[in-house]
Write a sequence for this structure.
């Protein structure tokens, strides 16, 4: 027999970062569902990974829409995931100093990988067609 | 109420799949950054993803993504639809069924090209 909330009793903390985090998981999650499914279809269904070569990327990224799409996927997935990692660390790590350490690592990872991905997406300039290598590896 | 029942497993799989996806994402950001080093380097790193062992891992990743996405929808239903909490077990079953149902065609697309002697799946032409 499941016990369901009656609506009375002690209230959880409202406002603040945790509430934002709660909403952020769900909002970013909904957008990510759409972004990830399209990404998977492009990379595995309408193409095969052996054809996702430099030439393939050049063709896609000649349209700035795909750069933006991928950047959105990068940002939302990275923040959604790192927020999740933060929750997991908070759940299992008791000592405050260890938590501080680990959460700092999470923050640094977030920053570094976000920068790496963004720089890659922004600075990609395809070489002239003759130098782009083969279309499919298989 | 939760220990050892569907509520616990759904939460646990959600957490494990999330961490696995995050780990993959970090690796993926690095391999895509190889683009900055030109076609020879980048195509070489793509070759890695073509190996059947890595394709198998990609398939496992897709399973994790499918489960995490659909269970996420289930979580949101439970959050925002008051009656859903009574149906949480049914919803969990639906999540598992849909995950497996979409996993099967994924296996076909991901493993097909390396099992071509069996499936005769040729690589699809490039589309953008």
């Amino acid at each position: 027999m499941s016990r369901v909330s009656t609506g009375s009793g002690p209230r959880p903390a409202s406002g603040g970062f945790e509430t934002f985090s709660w909403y952020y998981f769900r909002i970013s999650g909904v957008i990510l569902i759409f972004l990830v499914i399209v990404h998977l279809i492009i990379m595995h269904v309408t193409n095969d990974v052996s054809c996702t070569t430099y030439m393939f990327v050049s063709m896609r990224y000649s349209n700035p829409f795909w750069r933006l799409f991928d950047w959105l996927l990068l940002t939302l997935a990275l923040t959604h995931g790192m927020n999740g990692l933060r929750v997991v660390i908070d759940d299992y790590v008791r000592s405050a100093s260890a938590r501080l350490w680990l959460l700092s690592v999470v923050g640094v990872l977030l920053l570094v990988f976000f920068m790496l991905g963004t720089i890659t997406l922004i600075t990609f300039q395809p070489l002239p067609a003759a130098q782009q290598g083969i279309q499919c590896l298989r | 109420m939760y220990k050892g029942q569907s509520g616990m497993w759904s939460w646990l799989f959600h957490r494990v799949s999330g961490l696995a996806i995050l780990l993959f994402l970090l690796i993926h950001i690095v391999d895509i950054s190889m683009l900055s080093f030109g076609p020879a380097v980048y195509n070489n790193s793509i070759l890695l993803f073509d190996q059947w062992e890595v394709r198998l891992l990609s398939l496992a990743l897709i399973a994790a993504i499918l489960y995490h996405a659909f269970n996420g929808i289930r979580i949101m239903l439970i959050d925002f639809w008051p009656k859903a909490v009574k149906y949480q077990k049914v919803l969990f079953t639906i999540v598992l069924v849909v995950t497996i149902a979409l996993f099967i065609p994924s296996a076909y697309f991901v493993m097909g090209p390396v099992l071509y002697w069996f499936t005769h799946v040729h690589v699809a032409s490039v589309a953008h």
In short: Chain B touches chain A through 46 residues (CB under 8 Å). The two ends of chain B are 50 Å apart (CA to CA). DSSP finds five helices and no strands in chain B.
